[in-house]
Write a structure and sequence with these properties.
single chain; 261 residues; alpha+beta; eight-stranded mixed beta sheet; 5 helices; 15 strands
Length: 261
């Protein structure tokens, strides 16, 4: 069975070779090194000692020594895909925002010596989903388009309910998880500088996207009035927590996708 899975993965990767299709010219070049260790589906170690977290994406997670951590579905396949794409190859790092995380890992876009943009490849093949931050927004729009392509074709993780887009009425079942929640925004409000996008008539129980004052100012500087979401079908991505019902804290515009524009 393992041999058959490995053969399928090799054929799948070969049949969907995806060269870098993003503009890295505005990003800082972080040098070149060889991939020596595959940690998981979005992290590698280089021969210069750097551990690199693939910025902008999230692959299914492995326990990696964390106690009582349940492996996410498709985690082994995602790690194997990174190995097939990058093991032993030289990669160039590109930085588009914050360059290291709290664990000291480099936060970079990686392009292999044969021209493969690893984030783009993994998203297009359904081995990861977009996972962006306010201090690292470079190429997020391009990555969202590749994720959408994989989701429409039901590739990889998009065949599994575990990762499926969730209707706003079912958002409560995603509390504690990173999720994509979709529905029609029925109302918006700004209260003491904080923005709210409500997906139901009862803000204390229905799904809500909340935007802190400093983050709402980013929306405003980029010409986005959250009132425009009213009556539109939108998709919100982020960690779902429980606060007056299920809620996602939105920190930057790319977390909200307008689906009927």
């Amino acid at each position: 069975m393992m041999a058959r899975s490995a053969t399928f993965l090799a054929l799948y990767l070969a049949s969907t070779l995806f060269a870098a299709a993003a503009d890295f010219s505005t990003l800082r070049n972080g040098g070149t090194a060889r991939v020596t260790v595959i940690v998981d589906g979005d992290t590698v170690v280089l021969d210069d000692g750097r551990e690199v977290r693939f910025v902008g994406i999230q692959a299914p997670k492995l326990p990696l020594g964390r106690p009582d951590f349940q492996k996410w579905p498709f985690a082994d396949e995602a790690k194997a895909a990174v190995g097939a794409l990058a093991q032993g190859k030289r990669v160039t790092l590109h930085f588009g925002g914050r360059e290291t995380d709290r664990y000291g890992r480099a936060l970079a876009h990686l392009v292999t010596e044969d021209g493969s943009w690893l984030q783009g490849d993994l998203l297009r093949r359904g081995f990861a989903r977009v996972y962006s931050f306010a201090d690292n927004r470079a190429l997020v729009r391009e990555m969202l388009a590749l994720e959408a392509e994989a989701r429409a074709a039901r590739r990889g993780i998009w065949r599994l309910d575990y990762y499926a887009v969730t209707a706003q009425a079912e958002a409560a079942r995603r509390i504690g998880a990173f999720a994509l929640i979709e529905g029609v925004a029925v109302a918006t409000a700004t209260v003491r500088g904080r923005g709210f996008v409500n997906f139901g008539p009862d803000y204390k129980t229905d799904f809500t996207a909340a935007i802190a004052p400093r983050d709402l100012r980013v929306f405003m500087r980029e010409g986005i009035d959250i009132a425009r979401y009213e009556g539109r079908r939108i998709r919100v991505r982020g960690w779902v927590k429980s606060y007056n019902g299920p809620m996602i804290e939105v920190t930057h515009p790319e977390q909200i996708e307008e689906l009927d524009r």
